[in-house]
Design a protein that fits this description.
The complex is a heterodimer.
Chain A lengths: L1 H14 L1 H5 L6 E2 L4 H8 L9 E4 L5 E5 L11 E2 L2 H5 L3 H7 L13 H19 L8 H26 L32 H15 L15 H14 L3 H15 L11 H7 L25 E3 L18 E2 L1 H4 L12 E4 L6 E6 L11 E2 H14 L3 H13 L16 H15 L6 H7 L14 E3 L4 E3 L11 H6 L8
Antiparallel strand pairs in A: 2-3, 4-6, 5-9, 7-8, 10-11
Helix pairs in contact in A: 3-7, 6-7, 7-8, 7-9, 8-9, 9-10, 10-13, 13-14, 13-15, 14-15
Chain B lengths: L1 H8 L11 H12 L4 E9 L1 H12 L2 E4 L1 H6 L3 E9 H9 L4 E6 L2 E6 L1 H5 L7 E9 L9 E4 L5 E3 L5 E6 L4 E5 L6 E4 L8 E3 L9 E3 L4 E3 L7 E5 H8 L16 E3 L8 E3 L12 E4 L2 E2 L2 H7 L5 E7 L2 H4 L10 E6 L10 E12 L11 H11 L7 H6 L16 H8 L5 H12 L4 H8 L3 E13 L3 E13 L5 E14 L4 E16 L32 H4 L2 H11 L7 H4 L3 E21 L2 E20 L4 H9 L1 E2 L8 E2 L6 E25 L4 E26 L11 H5 L22 E21 L3 E12 L6 H4 L3 E8 L13 E15 L12 E6 L9 E7 L8 E14 L4 E20 L8 E24 L3 E11 L1 E6 L8 H5 L11 E10 L5 E6 L5 E4 L11 E6 L4 E11 L2 E11 L2 E3 L40 H7 L3 H4 L5 E3 L2 E12 L2 H6 L4 E9 L3 E3 L10 E2 L2 E3 ...
Parallel strand pairs in B: 2-5, 6-12, 18-21
Antiparallel strand pairs in B: 1-3, 4-5, 6-9, 7-8, 7-10, 10-11, 13-14, 15-20, 16-17, 18-19, 20-21, 22-23, 22-59, 23-24, 24-25, 25-26, 26-27, 27-28, 28-31, 29-30, 31-32, 32-33, 33-34, 34-35, 35-36, 36-39, 37-38, 39-40, 40-41, 41-42, 41-43, 42-48, 44-45, 44-47, 45-46, 48-49, 49-52, 50-51, 52-53, 52-54, ...
Helix pairs in contact in B: 1-2, 10-13, 12-13
Chain lengths: 489, 1209
């Protein structure tokens, strides 16, 4: 009898064992349902130019928080002291050196983009097979993943591929087009600039209509943001007509937005944000973060950081060239984002961009940028009236209304285009948006004079931007895995 | 029936867990229940032929030395159904030889005395008691007169009566004890005390699943007697540390950041390198051993080292297994035997001088030398961080005030010097030791008892430990352990083990500054804690500049002063744990030799910790200020955290383990004991679940139990712009959220089997197999089914005929085994076949589903168990009447499929993934020697040597080719080198700026000196310097006994490894902590480079880092030093009080012991570093946050002094 009982006990234990082992770890899950795929978009990790690693505990390790194209823009100046205080990578970027990174260093411009692409690929590859959702929900999530993925390729193309040139795009090398989520893939090849742009256009043209028209959340992708991204891709290709069409679609969809998409009026908001004219150097905060639901200027977000080169706690690493500070009229509120003293007013510096206000620029679908890019496209396609109207609207939110009119000297289309580009400078001074203009306008006959200003100085040494350095070289860490790749010059 | 009678009723001596039934039965049958009877008919046959016949009929083996074999080539005998002794007596009559039977072995030896004495003196009756070293009576011991057939077994009270003749040698023996011999010279009573056999090749080996006869196993085992562990553990709260030096293969490395316990080297880098610990047949974590096991209860410890020994434990056993067996009750004829053990150990405070900090005078001199008001201007240091990178707030250290005042023209130089001299005259060390530290000490009281009858026996213990460390942490621990054995019927028995433990920790409150009690040692030496009038002094200047503080106090309307001695009383840090374990075993004999065994265990640990900082602590006030927003125009601030009430954190941890095991074991002899078969077939299921919750509340009042409400959603996401910053971010966000849960579960299902066959007690083969499945992989058979297995063979060559006349040889056994072990990746190490998502709750995405899922790890379908193949060759021997015995083992372990994070092409989206890509080998040998140097009835001297050698090599480890020397010097694991290797730059001296230089070979092939890591040309600048794992380690013990007095001492040694030197790491910026004395030896002026290697100080950190890398100095070859050392681990004297005295206090025996531990050591470095008080690679910096590299001295204690008393009733 004992024997029988024992055998039964053993059999019972053995029989139940496959279920016994099939337990899901608590706090963990494997992607199956529409809620999982939807939830994957709900991560601020996807909205940053920060290369992170997720740890087992769920915390994140920051592998690279800084990005460097901002330092490669033209408005900066440094002195020997501030230059010496920069990190080696920042120095390389500031000098437009060939390589910014050492082999053991991470490059957020590359790593963070592909890290996010893995998530978008995982969603795009699998969401249509997900359980517990309608076909329509799944299609919207698929479109959201594809548009996001295209946005990341847009950034990758701006860093690692030459500016779009119809004549050479089919041979200029860009980045690998990875569309499958597979961590064990080892055989990547660099796609051409043309392949990457064709991919983005095809993906965006196909997916944007599938997005919900109404923006329901600033940090999720909806039609207005999708079309703004499409327009930006077209602009980089010089296809201003197609860009205009895309902006118009964005404008149409924006009218249905469930959240406010607009511009802050600095005439009223600056004091609410804590700006005190009596102690202008002490202004340290109040500007809503990009994650704040009340930040009406965010239509979709991909933010970078200016911390590495202009942090208020330390002496700034870079200052603004005086000729660029001179672009601001005295009553332009945007001038107040700059200071020439430290926060206690005890140390003098040349003008620098203060933190902590507007320290995390948005490079994805930013409303001020939408106004100016849309205006430029309109000016280039002949609709000067609406172009002027958009620029004036932005300026009215940035300075007293009486000063906001476009100067009377700006009359022709070309003058207006140049004025808009200058206005972009005022709006995004040292924030890094200029990089995209410098690349886009490199071969634009209208802007050849800008190249004269593409210099940096440390006081003693002067560096000049060459065409080769409109792209990063592929970081050594990536090259080491792909020895057969041909690197950028 | 007889087998079971033996198993359950024969009292086991203290150090054997389970004596194999068969062995006992044989012995008992022979000595006590009459010897077997034989029928012999031989004419003119060699002696061994007759003895072989006897063996086949009686099962009693024999040894014949060469001389006897030669002398007795032709013997005749014709007897029928007579006892063996009678037959032997007849056989040897007149031959000049006699026989004796020891441990079931017939020993034929010359009996000159017998043959030359025609007239035998008359027999006399003697009596006596056989006891163990604690004076407890030993039942079942054999007492015999050597060379005669007279022998008897002691009863339950240890008593015996024997008839002897003058000058006969009385032999007292018992399994697991050393044999004692006393010559009879007319005494009426002869008592004997039998000591445990220390780490001698065990007669039985306990694998946790079964108990085997040592001679029938081909595995590599080490056996340690429980009493030896108990003696050492009485003075040391860790049982595992007490195993140090007692057995080969088990390495204890007390250096920080080292693998503390390893068996035969490490076989894994990213899974566990720890051995598997098994208590009473069930795996237990190392922490739980110290929680549950009372060291006085340990019966034995067995180390399973090779594949045959360990493979029964399957995938958890690649790092070896430590099997601990606790004591059980015995049949004492219903009398209880009670023992009290008490001990006290004083360890004191750590040795401050060892840490090489500067004295106040030296500090002040150096601080003045490096003072640089041009670099760190007064404006800069009072408003910004000015060279204090780790500080959030501007601060001026008190010693800097006089310097700045003079620089600002406020005081004269002489006034400054007067102020500095005053500070230099102070030293806070005695105050720190008095008020912020406590002497480390340890005390234990334990009462154990055992007793029983035929059907029931019990062993129990009650223990209380008190442990106090140097950081004012006090821990009380209470243990209640009971083991009961029930014999329900002739074929069915049960056992029940219950353990209960309760711990109560009362910790000293951690200070906000210097952040952690560990860093108390680095306090600025002139910062006094209390003035002469007894007022507690403020440290707030170290945290923030007074002007800054005044502003922030005004804005926040909070007091931001920090007075350490006030703060440490303003709260509590307590923890309790209640842990229990119930283990029940059932054993049923089903058929002859076939037994069913079941084991069912449930263990639960419940721990709770509560930490409270009340509203007056600086920590609480500071946080309130960080989350207070200044009012406009100097108005009242808006507080986002409660202003009254303190910070309270409560953590609850629960662990639940259960195990169900069902197995059938078979153990039987066939063919008149020619063949012996043991086999095992079983299945077990186990689960381990750990759950924890953490709650954080603010504004808590422990009296009213009320806490404050905060807007957590806002404070943890967008945050506020507080009056004080809490990080370098532009807004302050709250980091510790109010509630967190953890829940992790491991499940295993295992099937296992083994079998062994022994022929003629000479040839043994055995084999085992085990399959483990775990929940890591789900039940996908493609990744689960990975059996581990082993085969082994043993040849008891000493029993062969051709060695039978080698009379100095008592035992010679050859063993060989080969097999596969495993190492399971942790279920949390990420990934099997799926992308793993981590769920979270997002305030930011409220309205978009709310839940956030982040990909924690990508699908990784190729992950498998790590596999280790082990070869083992061993020899066990005993010679010279077993006075010298030992064993030698040679092993070769090859680990493949070793898990390693493989860096991935960033294009995949991932930085790295765990892959089975590594390979590692461990080769080595082990030598155990036991010798009985002197053995008389009054005096004995024994020596035990354990020597282990391990050579480790990482044969393959995926690592993206390190292209820089800097990569290499940060590696501990590099293909082609031993695990935990150290690499260094080649030192080339300082240059004329005091900047470090190392040699490098440039692209042109020339040797050049380089001062920046960025300028190194390639990996060749890094040189391999050795490994931090000892290549040679072990222990040397000697024990002496003179009558009632015993003395023993043990040296432990670790040789052949390296560590990084502890050097100065301060070369730039301002001082916040006390400095390493080496800073005083730094380069100061040109020419100094000729007599110092310590780099210069450069105030501007940007200049400093652009000009040179002091890293090159820290990591240079001159700072890699030998870590070899030998230490007198303990030296003890024990005294057994005279029986007469014991009787006066109604005790059976009283033993007192004094011990001093770590009295001295010899280390092979010139820096005075004790390798056990050193972090070999790296450690946290004095601020508790910054990772500094290179070796760092950790706390060293002087010798610890202990006393103990053991009284048995």
């Amino acid at each position: 009898m004992t024997f029988a009982a024992v055998v039964m006990l053993g059999a019972l234990a053995a029989g139940g064992c496959s279920d016994f082992l099939d337990i899901k770890p608590k706090g963990r899950d494997v992607p199956q349902t529409v809620a999982h795929y939807n939830g994957m978009f709900n991560s601020t990790n996807l909205l940053n130019f920060t290369y992170i690693r997720m740890n087992e505990t769920g915390s994140t390790s920051l592998l690279q928080t800084d990005t460097y194209w901002q330092l490669m823009c033209d408005a900066h100046i440094a002195d020997e002291t501030s230059f010496a205080a920069m990190s080696a990578r920042s120095q390389n970027a500031f000098m437009w050196a060939d390589d910014i990174f050492q082999e053991n260093e991470h490059c957020a411009e590359y790593g963070a983009m592909y890290y996010q692409i893995y998530t978008y690929n995982l969603i795009a590859n699998n969401v249509m097979d997900a359980t517990e959702g309608t076909e329509q929900e799944k299609r919207a999530l698929l479109a959201e993943a594809r548009v996001n993925r295209a946005l990341n390729y847009y950034f990758l193309a701006q860093f690692f591929g030459k500016p779009y040139n119809e004549a050479t795009a089919a041979t200029d090398l860009c980045v690998p087009l990875v569309t499958e989520a597979n961590s064990s893939e080892t055989n990547f090849t660099r796609a051409t600039v043309k392949e990457v742009y064709d991919f983005m256009i095809a993906e965006l043209e196909e997916s944007c209509p599938q997005l919900d028209r109404a923006t329901r959340h600033r940090l999720r992708m909806f039609q207005p943001a999708g079309y703004i991204i499409l327009a930006k891709v077209y602009m980089q290709m010089g296809r201003y007509g197609d860009a205009t069409t895309a902006f118009q679609k964005a404008e149409n969809a924006m009218s249905e937005s469930e959240v406010v998409l607009g511009l802050f009026d600095y005439n009223t908001t600056l004091s609410a944000w804590g700006y005190n004219p009596a102690m202008p150097f002490a202004w340290s905060g109040g500007y809503p973060t990009n994650f704040d639901v009340n930040n009406i200027e965010v239509a979709f977000l991909k933010q970078g950081s200016m911390m590495s080169y202009t942090l208020q706690l330390f002496a700034p690493n870079v200052y603004v060239k005086p000729e660029f500070m001179a672009l601001y009229e005295d009553d332009d509120h945007r001038r107040k984002f700059f200071a020439n003293k430290n926060s206690t007013g005890t140390i003098d510096y040349p003008y620098y961009r203060r933190l902590f206000v507007r320290s995390m620029p948005n490079y994805a679908a930013d409303m001020p940028e939408y106004y100016l890019l849309f205006a430029e496209c309109l000016a280039r396609t002949g609709n000067l009236t609406k172009a002027r109207e958009l620029v004036t609207t932005l300026r009215k939110h940035r300075m007293p209304v009486e000063s906001a009119e476009i100067p009377s000297g700006v009359t022709t289309a070309d003058q207006l285009i140049r004025f808009i580009v200058e206005e972009r400078h005022r709006e995004f001074m040292v924030m890094g948006h200029r990089w995209f203009d410098m690349r886009r306008l490199w071969n634009d006959p209208l802007f050849q004079d800008l190249k004269d200003g593409y210099t940096h100085t440390t006081g003693e040494r002067t560096f000049v931007l060459t065409e080769d350095r409109l792209v990063y070289r592929i970081p050594p860490r990536v090259m080491s895995f792909n020895p057969r790749w041909i690197n950028n010059n | 029936m007889a087998i079971f009678a033996a198993l359950f009723f024969i009292p086991a001596s203290a150090d054997i867990a389970v004596v194999p039934a068969e062995e006992f039965a044989e012995r008992i049958e022979f000595v006590a229940l009459q010897s077997p009877r034989v029928t012999l008919n031989h004419i003119g046959q060699p002696l061994d032929r007759v003895l072989r016949d006897i063996q086949s009929q009686s099962g009693i083996g024999y040894t014949v030395n060469e001389q006897a074999w030669n002398d007795l080539r032709s013997v005749s005998i014709n007897v029928s159904d007579v006892p063996v002794e009678e037959a032997l007596a007849e056989l040897l009559d007149g031959s000049g030889y006699s026989h004796r039977i020891v441990n079931n072995l017939i020993v034929i030896e010359r009996s000159a005395a017998v043959s030359q004495q025609p007239q035998q003196p008359a027999l006399s009756r003697i009596t006596g008691v056989v006891r163990d070293t604690d004076n407890r009576p030993l039942a079942g011991a054999t007492v015999s007169a050597r060379g005669t057939t007279r022998g008897i077994v002691t009863g339950a009270d240890g008593r015996y009566t024997l008839m002897v003749r003058p000058n006969e040698v009385i032999v007292f023996s018992l399994v697991g004890k050393n044999t004692v011999e006393v010559t009879y010279t007319g005494q009426q009573t002869i008592d004997a005390r039998l000591e445990d056999r220390v780490a001698e090749v065990g007669q039985v080996v306990v694998t946790g699943y079964q108990t085997l006869s040592a001679e029938r196993s081909a595995g590599s085992f080490s056996h340690i007697a429980g009493d030896v562990v108990a003696d050492k553990a009485a003075f040391r709260s860790s049982i595992l540390e007490s195993l140090e030096g007692l057995a080969t293969g088990f390495a204890v490395n007390l250096g920080e950041d080292q693998h503390t316990f390893t068996i035969r080297g490490i076989t894994s880098i990213h899974s566990t390198a720890q051995p598997l610990y098994v208590v009473d047949g069930v795996p237990m974590s190392a922490e739980n051993i110290d929680i549950f096991v009372n060291s006085n209860d340990i019966a034995s410890v067995t180390l399973l080292k090779d594949a045959t020994a360990a493979s029964i434990w399957g995938s958890q056993a690649a790092n070896g297994v430590v099997v601990i067996v606790t004591k059980r009750g015995r049949d004492t004829d219903r009398k209880m035997s009670i023992t009290y053990d008490g001990s006290f150990t004083y360890r004191g405070r750590p040795d401050y001088n060892y840490l090489e900090y500067m004295s106040s005078e030296m500090f002040m001199k150096n601080a003045l030398e490096i003072f640089d008001p041009a670099q760190f201007t007064w404006g800069n240091v009072t408003t910004g961080r000015g060279g204090l990178g780790a500080n959030l707030y501007p601060a001026v250290m008190p010693h800097e005030y006089p310097m700045y005042m003079m620089a600002n023209g406020q005081i004269s130089e002489s006034e400054r010097d007067r102020l500095l001299a005053e500070m230099a005259s102070r030293n806070n060390r005695s105050q720190v030791e008095k008020y912020l530290m406590s002497p480390a000490l340890f005390t234990r009281h334990s009462v154990s008892f055992y007793g029983g009858s035929e059907t029931y026996s019990v062993y129990g213990s009650l223990a209380y430990d008190f442990n106090q460390d140097d950081s004012r942490n006090k821990k009380d621990k209470y243990n209640v352990n009971v083991r009961q054995d029930f014999k329900l019927s002739s074929w069915l028995s049960l056992d029940l083990i219950t353990n209960l433990s309760y711990t109560d920790d009362n910790n000293g409150l951690q200070l906000q500054y210097p952040g952690n009690n560990t860093y108390l040692n680095g306090l600025l030496p002139y910062m006094m804690l209390r003035d002469d009038e007894g007022n507690n002094l403020s440290f707030s200047e170290l945290l923030m500049y007074e002007g800054y503080r005044a502003d922030k106090e005004a804005a926040s309307r909070l007091n931001l002063d920090f007075v350490p001695l006030d703060d440490i009383r303003r709260g509590f840090d307590k923890a309790t744990s209640l842990n229990s374990r119930v283990s029940a075993g059932i054993r049923a004999r089903l058929l002859e030799g076939l037994v069913y065994e079941g084991r069912f265990q449930y263990q639960t640990n419940n721990a709770e910790s509560r930490v409270f900082y009340n509203e007056d602590t600086y920590r609480t006030r500071e946080e309130v200020a960080q989350f207070a927003v200044a009012g406009t125009g100097g108005g009242a601030p808006t507080y986002h955290l409660p202003v009254s009430g303190g910070k309270y954190r409560e953590t609850n941890f629960r662990e639940r383990n259960w195990l169900v095991r069902n197995q059938f074991s078979f153990d039987r002899s066939f063919d008149a004991a020619e063949s012996h078969v043991t086999a095992l077939l079983g299945m077990e299921t186990q689960a381990n679940r750990r759950m924890g919750t953490t709650s954080n509340v603010r504004g808590y009042n422990p009296q009213t139990l009320v806490f404050g409400r905060i807007n957590e959603a806002q404070l943890t996401s967008t945050g506020v712009v507080g009056i004080l910053p809490n990080s370098t971010a532009n807004t302050n966000t709250l980091r510790d959220i109010s509630f967190a849960v953890a829940d992790i579960e491991y499940r295993y299902v295992s099937f296992y089997a083994n079998g062994a066959y022994t022929f003629r007690r000479k040839y043994t083969v055995n084999s085992s197999i085990r399959v483990d499945q775990s929940n890591l992989f789900g039940s996908d058979p493609s990744v689960q089914f990975k059996p581990v297995w082993s085969v082994g063979a043993a040849w008891n060559i000493g029993r062969e005929d051709f060695l039978s006349d080698v009379d100095f040889l008592n035992r010679l056994n050859l063993r060989m085994s080969y097999g596969l072990g495993g190492n399971s990746p942790s279920p949390t190490s990420g990934a099997g076949a799926y992308d793993i998502l981590l769920a979270g709750s997002s305030v930011t995405f409220a309205g978009m589903g709310g839940t956030t899922f982040s990909i924690l790890s990508p699908a990784n379908k190729k992950l498998r168990w790590e596999r280790t193949r082990t070869w083992n060759l061993g020899i066990d021997f005993a010679v010279l009447d077993s006075r010298l015995s030992g064993s030698i083992d040679i092993y070769d372990k090859e680990t493949t499929d070793m898990l390693s994070p493989m860096e991935l092409d960033l294009t995949t989206g991932w930085y790295s993934a765990m892959m089975n890509v590594g390979e590692m080998s461990n080769k080595g040998f082990e030598l155990t020697l036991n010798s009985v140097n002197v053995m008389t009835s009054d005096f004995s001297w024994r020596t035990m040597l354990n020597l282990s050698n391990n050579k480790n090599k990482v044969n393959k480890l995926y690592l993206r080719t390190p292209v820089t020397a800097t990569n290499i010097v940060h590696q501990r694991f590099l293909e082609g080198y031993a695990a935990n290797s150290l690499f260094a730059y080649q030192w080339a001296g300082l240059d004329n700026l005091g900047d470090p230089q190392v040699y490098d070979v440039n692209a042109a092939g020339d040797v050049v000196k380089v001062k920046r890591t960025n300028n190194l040309s390639g990996p060749d600048a890094a040189r391999y310097m050795g490994t931090s794992q000892p290549k040679w380690f072990g222990g040397l013990s000697n024990s002496f006994r003179y009558k009632n007095l015993e003395m023993d001492f043990m040296f432990v040694f670790n040789f052949g490894h390296k560590m990084r030197n502890d050097v100065n790491r301060f070369y730039t910026d301002r001082i916040v902590f006390n400095l390493h004395r080496d800073f005083d030896k730094r380069w100061r002026k040109e020419g100094d480079e000729n007599h110092t290697n310590v780099p210069s100080y450069v105030s501007n950190s940007a200049t400093e880092s652009s000009r040179r890398s002091t890293h090159l100095y820290t990591y240079s070859d001159i700072n890699v030093i030998s870590a070899s050392y030998a230490k007198l681990r303990d030296l003890g004297i024990s005294y057994h009080l005279p029986k007469r005295f014991c009787e006066k206090v109604s005790a059976q025996a009283i033993r007192v012991r004094f011990q001093v531990s770590n009295l001295f050591y010899i280390a092979a470095n010139n820096q005075g570093i004790d390798p056990e008080a050193h972090s070999y690679f790296s450690a946290l910096g004095p601020d508790g946050a910054n990772f500094v590299f290179g070796g760092v001295r950790s706390l060293r204690y002087g010798p610890s002094w202990s006393g103990s008393i053991s009284i048995s009733f």
